[in-house]
């Protein structure tokens, strides 16, 4: 069941100058992150490619690193901050994402079904904030 859809955006600090002649400094969550994998294999890549300069498992860490001007990253619209700059040109267009509830066959109980229905009926999930 789909909880919500959201958009991904390339973001950076307004203070970070991007030199297209050098690898773009990339901030990623961890080696198993979908955003990281997509960014490293997206077409067309930036002319000089990416160089991972930081990995951090927390959204707070990534947001702080962007604010400090350490690099660029992919963030969903829910996590955009007023002091972030959305990068519109020169980067691969990121896909939209969806938050889903998945249940396995062994979890097919009335309690699990009730929880999934409750989660999917929460109106706040269905209205992602608009990009800033």
Q: What characteristics describe this protein?
A:
3 helices; 26% strand; D-Maltodextrin-Binding Protein, domain 2; disordered C terminus; alpha+beta; two-stranded parallel ribbon; 4-stranded antiparallel beta sheet; 6 strands; elongated; 132 residues
Characterization of this structure:
The chain has 132 residues and is α+β, with helices and mostly antiparallel strands. The chain has one domain (2-126): 3-Layer(aba) Sandwich (D-Maltodextrin-Binding Protein, domain 2), CATH 3.40.190.10. The protein has helices at 34-41, 59-67, 110-121; strands at residues 2-12, 24-28, 50-55, 73-76, 85-87, 96-100. The strands form two sheets. Strands 1, 4, 5 and 6 form a four-stranded antiparallel sheet that branches. Strands 2-3 form a two-stranded parallel sheet. Strand 2 (24-28), helix 1 (34-41) and strand 3 (50-55) form a beta-alpha-beta unit.
Q: Provide the structure class.
A: alpha+beta
- CATH topology name: D-Maltodextrin-Binding Protein, domain 2
CATH superfamily assignment? Periplasmic binding protein-like II
Do you know the CATH architecture? 3-Layer(aba) Sandwich
Helix-strand string? EEHEHEEEH
Which spans of ≥5 residues are poorly predicted at pLDDT below 50? 125-130
- Overall residue-averaged pLDDT value: 86
What is the assembly state of the chains in this entry?
A: single chain
What is the CATH C-level name?
A: Alpha Beta
Strand content: 25-35%
Number of helices: 3
Record field, number of beta strands: 6
Main sheet record: 4 strands, antiparallel
Helix amount, in percent?
Answer: 10-25%
Shape call: elongated
């Amino acid at each position: 069941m789909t909880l919500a859809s959201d958009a991904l955006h390339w973001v950076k600090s307004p203070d970070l100058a991007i030199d297209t002649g050098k690898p773009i400094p990339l901030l990623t969550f961890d080696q198993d992150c979908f955003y990281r994998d997509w960014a490293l294999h997206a077409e067309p890549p930036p002319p000089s490619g990416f160089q991972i300069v930081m990995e951090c498992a927390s959204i707070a860490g990534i947001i702080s690193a962007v604010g400090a001007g350490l690099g660029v990253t992919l963030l969903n619209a829910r996590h955009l901050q007023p002091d972030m700059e959305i990068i519109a040109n020169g980067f691969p267009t990121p896909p939209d994402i969806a938050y889903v509830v998945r249940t396995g066959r062994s979890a097919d109980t009335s309690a699990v079904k009730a929880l999934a229905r409750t989660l999917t009926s929460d109106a706040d999930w269905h209205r992602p904030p608009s990009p800033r």
